[in-house]
Amino acid sequence: MTSPDLATVPDPSPAPTRRVESEAVYLALAGGVLGAVYGFVVSLVAEALTLAGEETPFAVWAAVGAAVVAAVSSTIGYWHARSRPGQEWRRSLAPWKFTVNTISVVIVHTALAFLATYALYRVLALGFIGLPVITFWAVVLMAVTLGLSTYIVYLSASSMTTQRMSSLLMAFIVIGTLTAMVTTPDPEWWTIHFSHLGSFDALSSWIFNGTLIAGGLLVTTFAVYIANDMGDLVEAGVLTNARAARIVPVLFVVMGIMLACVGIFPVNVNLALHNISAMGMAAMFLVLLVAGPNLFRGMPRTYFVASWAFFAAMITSVILFIPAIGYFSLTAFEIIVFALIFGWIAVFIRFLEASRRVA
C-alpha cells in the first residue's frame, strides 16, 4: 500500500504577487479619483446631506458607490486571475460554469461592499449625530471609501481559493443578516421566527432575502472549488473514495439552490416552498454528516470527531425544539441550525485545505 503523495497536491492558497498588488494599488487610485468626483456631484445634488439621516443619507450614496466599484474590480480581478498559479484549472471549466462562477463572485463582492459600507457609516453616524456632510468631507470620504473598496475587492477576487470563498460566504451571510436585523421595521421580529425578517415591504427584507439568494449562488460556485480540491486529493491518494469528488459537489449545489430558494420564496409569498427549501438545505447537511465516513475517507480523525459533534448538536437542537419539550423557540432553532450548517462548512473547508498540505 502506497502512502499519499502530498507533494503532488497544488498549493491551495498562493500569495498575491507583486503584479497583483501593483494592479490593486493602481485600480484603488483610479477608484479614489472616481470617488472624489462622485462625492462632489453628490454634495451638489443632495441637499442637507448627513451621514445617516432620513432624507439624504450619505451612507446610502457611499454604499452605492462602493458597490459599483466592487462590481468592476471583482470582475477584472476574478477574470485576470484565471491564468495565475493555482487558478489555471478554472480555464478548463465549461463556459457556462465559468460564467456562473464569475457572476456569483461579483454579486457577493458587490453586495458585501454595499452592506459593509452602509453599516460602517450607520455606526459612524451614531458618534456624529446630526453632523452635516459638507462638500469637502463628501469628496474626501467618498474618495477613501471607493479607493479602499476597489483595493480590498480586487485582492479578494484575484486570490480566490476554497478557504477564502468559505470566509467570504461566512462574512456575507453574517453581515447581511445583522444588517437586516438592525434595519427591520419590526423590532420584535424575533418573537415570531427568523424568516420573518424577509416578510416586509422594506429595505431590510430586500437585504435579508437578497443575502440568502446571493449566498446560495455562492455555495453553488463553492461546489466547483470543492470538486477541484477533492479531485486533487483523490489523485494524490489522500482521499480514497474517488466517487466523493463527484457526489459531494452535487450535494453542495443542491444545498446552495435550497438556500437561494429560501430567499426567493419568503414566508409571506409561499410558506410551503419556503419551508421545503429550508428543510431541503438541512437534509443535505445531514446527508453530508452521516455519509461523511464513507465520502471523506482519508480525512484526519479529528475532522470526523468534529463532524459527529455537529451532528449531535443538530439532533439535540431538534429534541429541544419539539413541542413536547419546547425549550427552544422557532427563532432560536432556525438560528442554531443555520449556525451549525455554516459552522460545519467552515470546519470542513479548513480540514480539506489542511489535507492538501504536508503535516
UniProtKB/TrEMBL annotation:
InterPro entries: DUF998. Pfam families: DUF998. The chain crosses the membrane at residues 24-46, 58-79, 100-121, 127-154, 166-183, 203-226, 247-265, 271-291, 303-326, 332-352. Keywords: Membrane, Transmembrane, Transmembrane helix. This is DUF998 domain-containing protein. It comes from Microbacterium insulae.
